[in-house]
Please model this.
Amino acid sequence: MAESLINSIARLRVIEKSLLTKEAAARLAAAPDFDEAVRILRECGWGQAAPSGGDEIDSLITGELEKTYALMGELMPEKQAAVTDVFRMRHDMVNIKLLYKLRMMGGDTEAAKLDFGGVYPEAELKAAMKRGDYSMLPPVIASALEELDVITYRTNDPKEVARRVDPAYFKYAASIKNPFVKEYFGALADFTNLAALIRGAGREDLLPTGEFTDEELSRLAEALPEDRDRALSVIAKLGASKRRRAIREGFEEYMRTGHTASIEKARDDHLIALASEGRTEIDTVKPIVGYMLAREREAEVVRLILTAKRANIPMSAVDERSVKLYG
Model:
């Protein structure tokens, strides 16, 4: 762990120059085939940390992310390690939901392929979930799983897993004493709730900790998805914060197109802007978190492009926002 935040930021200023540029991503997307795309990646510095064996795409990405997470351990002051951990824990939540459902349905948790990048070691998490021991998790998440044990004793409805785990995760994020974490997860909750209401979800499926008030959520739930004009009236009355403007613009575009991709694009653009705007600060951990998110986003873009190249899928068939980098 770092002792000096200033030294960490100074070191990061040098390291972040190795991030893939938009030009490099464009070259990667324009590569004629998979082998040429991999060559371009290696030219950009990818691959030195890749473990041998296994799928080449997974090896490339796993190697780079392992290097990134190790670097976070070096740069992040110990007292603020929870800030980077809470972002990484989204992978743990995916894994916890998968393992819980497998256990509930009598599946093989040992053979499950888990999402890479979480805080908890795979073997420990599998063993803990198998025996129903949640003590390694934050109390709010452990408590949600214990409640879920009671609920699933009566019913094996897999929808209950996400209904309990996801809100608990967002509550945990809200408990982290860092303004950037609160802003990021609050925005994610609001966009997620809007998209859920458009799909006809009930209030029990919504996330806490966003800016929407209970009254606003109730009015939106009543109007969506049947009365979009009425919902637009509710959205139009939202305040003037950056987040609410982004939500309003995304919803207005949805009204024009009828596609929820408009909400997802507005969400991605807003979160990318949030993660990028603190990169010049020198007295907060935002540049460190922003770098980690940029590297994770970079990995997502690389995976998408390489997968398309290997499957001979033309890049014209790939959504443009899916290959947008942070920064």
Summary: The chain has three domains: 5-77+286-323, 87-175, 179-275.
